Amino acid sequence: MRIKSLPPASDKSYDVLVHPARHPLSGNLDAQPSKNYTTRYLLAAALGDGESRVINCATSADSIAMQRCLIQMGTQIIPESEVGTISNFRIKGVNGRPSLVDSEPVNPGNAGAVLRFLLAVGALLPTVTFVTDHPQSLGIRPNADLLDALNQLGCETTPPSGLLPITLQGGRLRGGDVTISGARSSQFLSGLLFLSPLIGEEVRIHVSEALVSKAPIRQTLEVLRKSGIEISATDDLMNYVVQPGTYKSGSFNVNGDWPGSAALLVAAAVTGGELKLKDLFNDEQGEKAAGDVLRQMGAHFDYNQAGNGVCLQSSGNLTSVNFDGDLATDAVLALMGAACFASGRTRFYNVSNLRIKECDRISDPIFELRKLGVKCWEGQELGDADPDAIIIEGNPMGYEGGVTVDGRDDHRVIMLLSIVALRCRKPVRILRAHQVRKSYPSYFDHLAKLGAEITFIEANS
Question: Out of 330, 364, 409, 410, which one is annotated catalytic?
Fold first, then answer.
């Protein structure tokens, strides 16, 4: 069954047919609430010493997963209002003492950050098991670095592999020095930072190896400090001292989402459009660098005069860039969409951690882009100094289209493929496109409001 529109909150499984853009994508929109800030504020409020309000929450799958798990761990979450894909909640915190309301395993679905944050906080419980109903995605993502840190604090964890299902035997934690690797994911460190104030003793955290994706750590520190936690960090974010303390209740307002907004900005840029997005700020989200990259590629981008949003204007003529993707991890795939139409070769480097996301965000999107005729490579294929680099030879004339591509059950891959489809000469079908709801339930609705023609197709039809 084919339909032109589908409610963003629909729980149906669907593919989409993205038609060639007949006109530049242009318009004014309110930015989607940030997935990263939503999950962090929900957790901080849940750990708080009283009732908090979290305003402008995303209603994405990750937000829902965090709410579901927090309720299972003793938090009361009371909806106040919901308008489209934005919700406000009153949250009655557990005052730093979570407790399971039943004996069922905790299942965060396919939400990696939710899992890592709650794995850490779960160490406060005498025993808890975490599982997933996405064994081929979250089920194969690593967690051993975090489990090793929890072991150092006195929590017993199994299995040693760090793959789900994972059982913790905690409850009697000690402070002191703890070392954690930051080379694979910053989510492990964020989880440890949420846990540390509740141990009852000073915790000194030392990050070994490199630390990837530093921007989300700054977001974590911002939320912790707004919640009354006393924490010091070195400028390089490799060392921390966390004092024992209490999460203070309060009112928290979620910022607009830069990663999802980056996809809309790129869609406007490649079609020569003009886009104004409200509720995007110069905050701690690293993905705000997407605007700077698009400016380097030839679009006009700036914050608006009111200071509550951004403006982009593009002729559609873009040029290649060389960009350190670790500065804006969750915007890299959207920017790959711009690179597909930029004159010259664009190179994204320092992105190896993209391999351990919902899918392998290096090999998998390259495989799908090649179906569309895009010339693209992994660094290792070209003998690049960075074997995990993503290299794209842009084609300003666009692509033929008329093929089916696989969204790989990954919201970022789906957004990338939809961007490229806009500049194809024939419609492109994207399989399992409903997975955009993980971070951006209204993504296709927003594209349509900007002028894109999207046909929803019931899965398997």
Answer: 330
pLDDT digits (tens, 9 = 90+) for 8-41: 445 789 999 999 999 999 999 999 999 999 999 9
Give yes or no for a contact between 177 and 204, defined as CB atoms under 8 angstroms apart: yes
- pLDDT of the residue at 209: 85
145 classed as catalytic: no
| Token duo for residue 328 | 């804006």
Confirm whether pTM is higher than 0.85: yes
CB atoms within 10 A of CB 154: 16
Order of strands across the sheet with 176-182? 176-182, 203-211, 239-242, 231-233
pLDDT tens-digit map of 333-345 = 999 999 999 999 9
Cα separation of 300 and 252, whole Å?
A: 32
Residue 199 CA to residue 214 CA, distance in Å, equals 24
In 255-334, beta strands by DSSP E: 274-278, 300-303, 309-313, 322-324
Q: Which residues pair with 171 in a beta bridge?
A: none
The H helix count followed by the E strand count for the chain is 13, 26
